[in-house]
Amino acid sequence: MLSTGRIIKEFQIADIKNIIPKLSSSLHKGQCGRIGVIGGSSEYTGAPYFAAMTALRLGADVVHVFCSSAAGTAIKSYSPDLIVHPILDDDTVLKQLRMWLPRLHCVVFGPGLGREKISLYSDILDLLKQFGKPTVVDADGLYVISELPNLLKDFKNVILTPNASEFKRLLDSSTNNNLIKKGTNDEILNYNSYSCVTGGSVCRCGGQGDILAGSIALFSCWAFLAESNDPLLLPAYSGCLFTKTLSSHVFKRNGRSMISNDFFLEIHNVFKNMFGDE
Hints:
This protein has helices at 13-17, 46-58, 69-78, 93-100, 118-131, 140-147, 164-173, 208-225, 233-254, 267-275; strands at residues 34-38, 62-67, 83-86, 106-109, 135-137, 158-160, 178-181, 186-189, 194-197. The chain has 278 residues and is α/β, with parallel strands linked by helices. Strands 3-2-1-4-5-6-7-8-9 form a nine-stranded mixed beta sheet, with helices on both faces. Strand 6, helix 7 (164-173) and strand 7 (178-181) form a beta-alpha-beta unit. The longest helix has 22 residues, at 233-254. It is globular, with a radius of gyration of 17 Å.
């Protein structure tokens, strides 16, 4: 059972800056992050796009989206900067993921995934666990885990991002996993630590959870590349703090008309204000 007690650990901006890679002419493509997003169905093409584009705008070098064939054309049309693989309904999907996963630093699993193929999604989560990839599980990915909680056993490098209604049943099935209970205050918990991020905007436009997932994924990537002493809780905190600050900034500019697409062009300015120049 996760601790929900007093705040045991807090982070400072300096802790986050320590994991952000310094830009240099000596770097090659991929060294600042190669992220994968697994999700996207005929009904939900925006969710994986929001997660993927957030990671890209935040500073990832390369972002891949693995989606259903029905979602592929739409997601490709949203941005030519994303590498889109419409393979989730292909018979060889697991084989193809085995080929791609070694090239990725972190994976977001679940945005817009759908709930029709629980057995396949279980196999994909097992694959992520086998490769030991830092994984952010959101949206329909949380539904898969709620149906098959044993998937979390020995899954060390995973961060779950439930909303309040999803939180309780996931809390009961989680032991050593990081959870972020999203809300007015984001509560970040694992088996021995607790932190809380406040702020954000009062506008609850759809897609902000996907933006959070993409943010956490890139901070997780950076933490592992930097060999951080806290490679899970620190990225969870960093992603929550950044997304809350970004949301507040966008709301001040756009008010009630705020939509999640508005976030992307503000990411650079908010990042610079929080963490300094590149």
